[in-house]
Amino acid sequence: MPVPGAYVLADLGGPLWEPLYPTLLDDAGLVTVVPPGHAATALLPGTPVNLLGPLGQGFRLVPTGHPLDRLLLVAESTYLPYLRPLYQTASSVALVVEATTRAQLPSPSSFPPALELILATRDGSAGYLGPLEVEGAAPPGLERAGARLRELLTWAERVCLACDPGRYPAFAQIVQETRLLPGSDFAQAFVRVPMPCGVGACDVCRITTRRGEQRACVEGPVFDLLDFLAT
Amino acid sequence: MIELAPKHKYGLPLATPLMPASGVFGFGDAYRDLIDLALLGAVVTNPISLRPRRAARGQRIQTRDDTFVVHTGWPNPGLHKVVRDYRDVWSHLPVPVIVHLLATQPTEVAESVGYLSSIANVAAVELGYATQATTRRAVDCMAAAQEGTLPVIAQIPLERMAAWAPRFANHGADALTLTAPPRAVLPISNEGLDSPVAHYMRGRLYGRALFPLLLNVLSRWSDKLALPIIACGGIGSPQDALDCLTLGATAVQIDALLWKDPPLLNRVGHKLRQRRPAPTADGESSTNPL
Questions:
Q1: B79 in helix, strand or coil?
Q2: Rounded CA gap, A141 and A32, in Å?
Q3: Most exposed of A171, A202, B36, B268 (fewest Cβ within 10 Å)?
Q4: How many whole angstroms separate alpha carbon A197 and alpha carbon B265?
Q5: What is the pLDDT of residue B196?
């Protein structure tokens, strides 16, 4: 079973492997969540699927060997499935979910009861007013998500993010401002890109980081968020 | 055993007429856990430039049915850094290494081949060209590559076969790779997006559909070029590899089809080891039945 954030490559009938991010593996099989229109949704029940893996570097939660107390998860609603295996990996878990509008937010009943859920929308139709990077004054009746995010960053022992990678430099800046000297891997960011080979051969999945270009398929798809700090 | 550079003073003998194509296998042993490297004749590196190159921006891959287009920009940290990072890996590979050089400037090619001549287990260079390169520039780069001591293989774009292949044969190439992936354009899938605006990406075309094109090129050119030919493009089975050898190729390269099917290299390797050239009535090996 891959650790959360790591992946397997699946043969879904196309000319290339498709990465899948398992959330559960038991006697009944492997559970993964895919977005609408994904090639996996076209499979008929009972279809055998060839898998290769586990591959890649997932989230690193317990570097010192003791259980995690306070875990903060931050996701855009479309990236939420990639954080799902982390919902119960710490004594206290807070999950910040941002969507464009209320209709794109998940139902609160789909989460474990012990998880603290913080919702935000870009249009302010539900929860806090996004985007998460912005703090400061909000229109009457609304609260900025950015202020709440900064509070949670001071509370958290670890932070795991799953968003559009273009937002990570701003998030890295916020983490650095909030925590002053965040340790390595304090905040970790998941990157979703095509990974056709899975072994670092094809160069399709290269992403730019502070340490130069990295291959998401072998050095990721989870990176230290601070690697995305603008240089 | 085959000889890919019979006119070169050191030659380029390979145990098996099989190798991965440049751009699909990484810089060394990325596939060590999935492929028996000893079944290969050589490892061909991803394209390397003298100076570092960054990855292309924007979307880098798009599929359509059984084909796909890839545009990576040939990212690499530059020849000297690649050698620093991989020379140990190269020296321990069970087969020789063919370094694929991006042939953009003759001066860079000359510097690169000079540097590579002293690197352990590097047995040859393969020159790769941009499709927009002029014939003059391509020939100049080939001439510059002769300043080193390594055999030189030229990878020819499909679109430049007629213009370049005879010239390279006359300007010191030891072997030719036919062909580099053709350039192609695909619409970028915008499923799930609200924007009705169409976007497209241009890149290298891969897929089984290239194989008939490859056989066409081989059948037309293998008898006309007095050089060993390495066939590359859409080879997806051991029989495909055998067909290329039957049509006059001396060796084959497996391209991006191996991403989905890494054991393909093992299967082709086993098949080619078992192969014996079919004798003709006069006792010679048969070539190009077309």
A1: helix
A2: 38
A3: B36
A4: 14
A5: 58
Please state, as a whole number, how many other Cβ atoms lie within 10 Å of the Cβ of residue B175.
28
Nearest Cα residue to A226 out of A166, A179, A175: A175
Alpha helices in B105-237 (DSSP H): 106-116, 135-145, 161-170, 210-221
Dihedrals phi, psi of B202, to nearest 5 degrees: -110, 145
Q: Among all residues of chain B, which has the CA nearest to that of A218? A: B30
Neighbours of B222 (CB within 10 A): 22
Q: Kindly report the nearest CA distance between residue B32 and chain A, in angstroms.
A: 10
Does the CB of B105 have a partner CB in chain A at under 8 Å? no
Q: What is the 3-state secondary structure (H, E, C) of chain A?
A: CCCCCCEEEEECCCCCCEEECEEEEECCEEEECCCCCCHHHHCCCCCCCEEEEEECECCCCCCCCCCCCEEEEEEEHHHHHHHHHHCCCCCEEEEEEEECCHHHCCCHHHCCCCCEEEEEECCCCCCEECCCCCCCCCCCCCCEHHHHHHHHHHHCCEEEEECCHHHHHHHHHHHHHHHCCCCCCCEEEECCCCCCCCCCCCCCCEEEECCEEEECCCCCEEEEHHHHCCC
B279: which DSSP letter? B
What top-level class would CATH report for the domain B2-287? alpha beta
Tokens of B28: 């060394």
Give the predicted TM-score (pTM) of the model.
Answer: 0.90
Tens-digit pLDDT profile for residues B159-197: 888 889 999 988 889 999 998 999 999 998 765 445 555
Q: What is the CA radius of gyration of chain A?
A: 18
Provide the residue type at B222 as one letter.
S
Report the alpha-carbon distance of residue B255 to residue B261 in Å, rounded.
Answer: 11
Q: Where are the domains of chain B?
A: 2-287
Give the pLDDT confidence score for residue B280 in this predicted structure. 46
- Compute φ and ψ for B90, nearest 5 degrees: -60, -45
What is the rounded (10 degree) CA torsion for A48, A53, A54, A57? -130
Question: Inter-chain contact A201–B75, Cβ cutoff 8 Å?
Answer: no
Query: Chain A contact for B61, CB < 8 A?
Result: yes
Residue B283 pLDDT class (50, 70, 90 cuts): very low
Number of A to B CB contacts under 8 A, please give it. Answer: 71
**Residues B23 and B73 sit within 8 Å (Cβ to Cβ):** no
Dihedral sign (CA B270, B96, B46, B229) = negative
- Give B107's contacts (C-beta < 8 A, 6+ positions apart): B144
Does the CB of B46 have a partner CB in chain A at under 8 Å? Answer: yes
Mean pLDDT of B19-28: 96
Quick: pLDDT tens for A139-149: 888 889 999 99
Cβ distance A201 to B24 less than 8 Å, yes or no, reads yes
CB contact under 8 A, B260 and A200: no
Tokens of A148: 């709440």
Whether B115 and chain A come into contact, CB under 8 Å, resolves to no
Q: Which of B151, B159, B157 minimizes the C-alpha distance to B175?
A: B151
Q: Residue A49: what residue type?
A: V
